[in-house]
Write a structure and sequence with these properties.
The complex is a heterodimer of chains A (297) and B (408).
Chain A lengths: L4 H16 L18 E6 L8 H10 L7 H4 L13 E6 L5 E6 L8 H5 L5 E3 L5 E3 L9 H5 L6 E2 L8 E2 L5 H5 L5 H5 L5 E5 H14 L19 E4 L23 H4 L1 H37 L1
Parallel strand pairs in A: 1-9
Antiparallel strand pairs in A: 1-8, 2-3, 4-5, 6-7
Chain B lengths: L11 H7 L6 H7 L3 H23 L1 H4 L10 H13 L2 H11 L9 H22 L8 H4 L6 H28 L2 H9 L1 H21 L17 H27 L11 H29 L9 H27 L3 H25 L13 H22 L17
Helix pairs in contact in B: 3-16, 5-7, 5-15, 5-16, 6-7, 6-11, 6-12, 7-9, 7-16, 9-10, 9-11, 11-12, 12-13, 12-15, 13-14, 13-15, 14-15
Classes of the chains: A alpha+beta (297), B mainly alpha (408).
C-alpha cells in the first residue's frame, strides 16, 4: 500500500517528534501511532457478507473441529471458544439489513495477557501477533483474568490443558503467508497490512463518509491500541463489543505496583536492621541501668 | 550423621518417646480413636481422592470454573486467604527479633509454624489448581518480569524457603541435631529480616494481581493501590490470627505451656493495641481508595454497595473499635472477639475480591462445586492435624531447655 499524503505527513512528524523526545507511549500530541509497523487487520463490517469462510479457514489452519452450520451459528451471539478461535455473529440493523461481525483475539499492541504471563507462554512477537507456546504454559489462567476482551479460553475438560486463542497465524505469517482467515475472505472485509496503514485507511473511510460510518474506529485506542481494528455503521455495543475497555495500555496499570519490590528489597533490610540496632541498644541501656541501680542499692 | 550430634540414641525408645508420645504402637493407635479424629479422617477420605481425581479428569470434572471465571475457591480461598492468614509468622517474628519485644517470644514459634503450614497448604492448593504445575519451573528460566504473578511466584518460593529454615529450628531441636539448629538460631535475625521483606512483597503482590483487571472488579473494591491494602490487611490478619490462635492453643494444648511465665491476657491486650492502629489506617486508606477510584456513588447502591458496607463496617470498623476499646480497658476477652471478627474480615475481603465482586457485571455467577469445597476443607483439616502432630512432639510452645530433651 502506498503512503497517502496525510500518512506521509504524520509519519514524518511522528519521526521528528520521536527523534526529539524520549519514546513515550502516551503519545506525542496524538501523532505517534502505537504499533505502527506491526501487522494488522482492518475489519469493515459494512462489507462482510457473513459467508464464514474465515471460520472454516481458521479451523483448518489450527486443526480445530469444523464450524457449526449457519442455522446453528447465527441462532445466538456466540463467543470464541477453545474449539473455535474465531466466530462470526449476525445482528440486524433497524432496517432489517444484516450486519456480520467476526470476533477473535484483538492482538493488542501492548497485550495484557502476555504481560500477565509469568512464564511467557503468551508472548508478543515484534511483528504483531500475540503467540502462544503451550510447552511453557503452566495453566495458571492469569491471562484469562487479565484480558479485557475475555479472549483466552481454557481446556477445562482436559487432564493436561492448554490455553486456546487466535494466534494471528503467527507461524503462517513467519512463512510470509497471510493469516488463514484473511487469505480466504472474498468480500474485502478483512484488510491486512501494517497497523499505521490500516489506521489511515480506517480514518479515510470513517471520516470521509461521515453519514455512512459510526464515527469511531474500534481498536484504535482500546486497550492502548489493538492490531485488529473495526469500522461499522451500527453502534459498537450492538455488535457485542466491550465498550468499557480502557483507552490506555493494560500492562501500564501495574507499573506502580511492580515498582514496589525494588524499593522493598533496597530499603527493608537496612531499615529493619536499624530498628533492630535501636531496640537492642535500648534493651542494653535498660539492663545497664538495672545493674547500676543494683550497685547503688 | 555422627553420634556426637545425635544426643538421644537412635533406637526404639526414641521413636516411642518422640513419635508415639511414650506409648506403645498399639496404645498409640487406640488413643487416636477420638470423635475429632474420626471426623478429620472422613474429611480426608473424601478430599484426598478428589484431589487426585482432578489430575486424572481435569479441572472441569471437579470444579465449577468457567471461561469467564478462571479463578475459584482454590485460588480465592486456599491461596489468597491461606497466605493472608499465614502472615502471623512474619508479624510476630518481626515483633520479637527486630523490635525486641521479648514478651512476645513465647508465641513466636507457633506463629512461624502456622505460617509454614499455611504456605505449604497454599502451595498444595495451587498445584491442584494449575493445569500443568510442573511448568512452574518456567518462572526461573523465562523472565516474565512484566507479570505480577512472576513476583508472586518468586516470593512464594523464597518465603517458603525462609519459613522452612525458621521451622527447622524446632524440628532439629526435636531431632537432637544440635550441629544444625545452633547455627540456624544464630541467623534467626537474618531470616526474620528476609521473612519481612518477602512477605511485604508477596502479600502486596497478591493484591497487585487484580490491578490489571479493572473491568472485572466492582469499583468499590478495585484500586490501583490494592497492593497497599493487601499488605495492610495481611498485617491485620497476622496480628489477629496470633490472638485467636493463642487463645485456642491455650485451651487445647494447656499441658504444653509448662514452666512458662506468660501473661496471655497482657500479650493479647498489647496485640489488640497494634491491631487497632493498623485497622484504623486500613479503614481510612480503603475510603481513600474509593474516592480515588471515583466510586463514592456506588456506596450503599444495590447488592454490592450494601455488601461493601457489611465488609467495611462489620468486619473492619467494628473490630478496630473493639480492639481500641479492649486495649484501652485491658479487656482481653473483648480483644479476642475483635480478633475473630478481624480474621473473618480478612477472609471476607479475599473471598470478595477473588469471587464475590469479581465478574460483578457478568450475568452468570460462580458458585464453587461441592468437590471444590471438599478439597479445600481437606487441606485445612490436614493443616490442623499437622499443627497438632507437630506441637505435641516438637518444642513449639516451649523451647528446649539446655542439654535436656523434651519428652512427651
Amino acid at each position: 500500500m502506498e503512503l497517502g499524503r496525510r500518512a506521509f505527513l504524520k509519519v514524518g512528524m511522528a519521526g521528528t517528534a520521536l527523534a526529539a523526545l524520549p519514546r513515550s507511549a502516551e503519545g506525542v500530541g496524538g501523532f505517534e501511532i502505537p504499533g505502527e509497523g506491526e501487522r494488522a487487520v482492518l475489519v469493515d463490517t459494512t462489507v462482510c457478507v457473513g459467508c464464514r469462510g474465515c471460520e472454516a479457514a481458521c479451523a483448518e489452519a489450527n486443526g480445530l473441529p469444523d464450524p457449526a452450520p449457519d442455522a446453528d451459528a447465527y441462532a445466538t451471539q456466540r463467543k470464541t471458544s477453545q474449539n473455535a478461535f474465531t466466530v462470526v455473529n449476525r445482528v440486524e440493523k433497524p432496517s432489517g439489513e444484516p450486519r456480520y461481525v467476526k470476533r477473535q483475539c484483538m492482538h493488542c499492541v501492548e497485550p495484557a495477557c502476555a504481560s500477565a504471563c509469568p512464564v511467557r507462554a503468551l508472548d508478543k512477537e515484534p511483528t504483531g501477533p500475540v503467540a502462544y507456546h503451550g510447552d511453557r504454559c503452566m495453566g495458571c489462567r492469569y491471562c484469562m483474568v487479565a484480558c479485557p476482551f475475555g479472549v483466552p479460553k481454557y481446556q477445562y475438560e482436559k487432564a493436561i490443558p492448554l490455553v486456546r486463542k487466535c494466534t494471528f497465524c503467527a507461524t503462517r505469517q513467519a512463512e510470509g503467508k497471510r493469516p488463514g482467515c484473511v487469505s480466504v475472505c472474498p468480500s474485502g472485509a478483512l484488510n491486512f497490512g501494517l497497523r499505521g496503514e490500516m489506521l489511515e485507511e480506517a480514518r479515510r473511510r470513517v471520516f470521509g463518509n461521515v453519514g455512512k460510518y459510526t464515527q469511531h474506529i474500534y481498536g484504535e485506542l482500546e486497550a492502548g491500541g489493538t492490531n485488529w481494528m473495526y469500522i461499522t455503521d451500527v453502534p459498537f455495543e450492538d455488535l457485542g463489543f466491550e465498550v468499557k475497555v480502557n483507552d490506555n495500555s493494560y500492562p501500564k496499570l501495574v507499573k506502580g505496583a511492580l515498582g514496589v519490590p525494588p524499593v522493598v528489597m533496597t530499603l527493608w533490610p537496612p531499615l529493619l536492621m536499624g530498628m533492630y540496632a535501636f531496640s537492642h541498644r535500648k534493651g542494653e541501656e535498660k539492663k545497664g541501668e538495672e545493674k547500676e541501680g543494683g550497685h547503688h542499692g | 550423621m555422627d553420634s556426637a550430634t545425635t544426643a538421644p540414641a537412635r533406637d526404639g525408645s526414641w521413636v516411642r518417646e518422640n513419635i508415639f508420645l511414650g506409648m506403645t504402637s498399639g496404645e498409640y493407635l487406640r488413643s487416636l480413636w477420638t470423635p475429632f479424629n474420626v471426623v478429620a479422617a472422613a474429611i480426608l477420605a473424601v478430599g484426598v481422592p478428589l484431589f487426585l481425581y482432578r489430575f486424572y479428569a481435569g479441572l472441569g470434572a471437579v470444579t465449577n470454573l468457567s471461561q469467564t471465571q478462571p479463578w475459584g475457591l482454590w485460588i480465592g480461598f486456599d491461596m489468597m486467604t491461606g497466605i493472608a492468614l499465614a502472615a502471623g509468622g512474619f508479624t510476630i517474628g518481626a515483633t520479637v527479633e527486630i523490635f525486641g519485644l521479648e514478651d512476645y517470644h513465647p508465641i513466636e514459634r507457633p506463629a512461624i509454624l502456622t505460617g509454614f503450614l499455611g504456605y505449604m497448604l497454599a502451595i498444595i492448593g495451587l498445584i491442584a489448581d494449575l493445569g500443568k504445575p510442573w511448568n512452574m519451573v518456567g518462572i526461573f528460566s523465562q523472565n516474565g518480569t512484566q507479570s505480577v504473578l512472576f513476583e508472586v511466584a518468586w516470593c512464594v518460593c523464597c518465603y517458603a524457603s525462609v519459613l522452612s529454615l525458621e521451622f527447622a529450628v524446632p524440628l532439629f531441636e526435636w531431632l537432637g541435631w544440635e550441629r544444625f539448629y545452633r547455627p540456624l538460631k544464630k541467623i534467626l535475625l537474618a531470616l526474620t529480616v528476609l521473612s519481612v521483606m518477602f512477605s511485604t512483597m508477596h502479600q502486596s503482590a497478591l493484591g497487585s494481581l487484580f490491578i490489571i483487571a479493572p473491568g472485572r472488579l466492582h469499583p468499590l473494591w478495585y484500586s490501583e493501590s490494592m497492593f497497599l491494602f493487601f499488605f495492610l490487611s495481611a498485617v491485620i490478619a497476622g496480628i489477629s490470627m496470633v490472638i485467636v490462635e493463642s487463645a485456642i492453643s491455650h485451651k487445647i494444648f494447656a499441658s504444653q505451656f509448662r514452666g512458662h511465665h506468660m501473661d496471655a491476657d497482657a500479650l493479647t491486650v498489647g496485640l489488640g493495641k497494634a491491631g487497632a492502629v493498623v485497622m484504623f489506617a486500613y479503614f481510612f486508606l480503603k475510603l481513600q481508595g474509593v474516592v480515588d477510584n471515583h466510586a463514592i456513588e456506588y456506596i450503599g447502591k444495590g447488592f454490592y454497595g450494601k455488601w461493601w458496607f457489611v465488609e467495611m463496617l462489620g468486619f473492619v470498623l467494628v473490630p478496630s473499635l473493639l480492639y481500641a476499646w479492649g486495649a484501652r480497658n485491658r479487656r482481653a476477652d473483648v480483644v479476642r472477639i475483635a480478633g475473630v471478627l478481624a480474621v473473618l474480615g480478612v477472609v471476607l475481603n479475599r473471598v470478595n475480591i477473588s469471587m464475590v465482586v469479581f465478574n460483578w457485571n457478568q450475568p452468570v455467577r460462580y458458585v464453587p462445586s461441592w468437590m471444590e469445597f471438599a478439597v479445600s476443607l481437606a487441606l485445612v483439616t490436614a493443616g490442623v492435624l499437622a499443627f497438632r502432630w507437630i506441637v505435641n512432639r516438637m518444642p513449639v510452645f516451649h523451647e528446649l531447655e539446655e542439654s535436656s530433651h523434651a519428652g512427651h
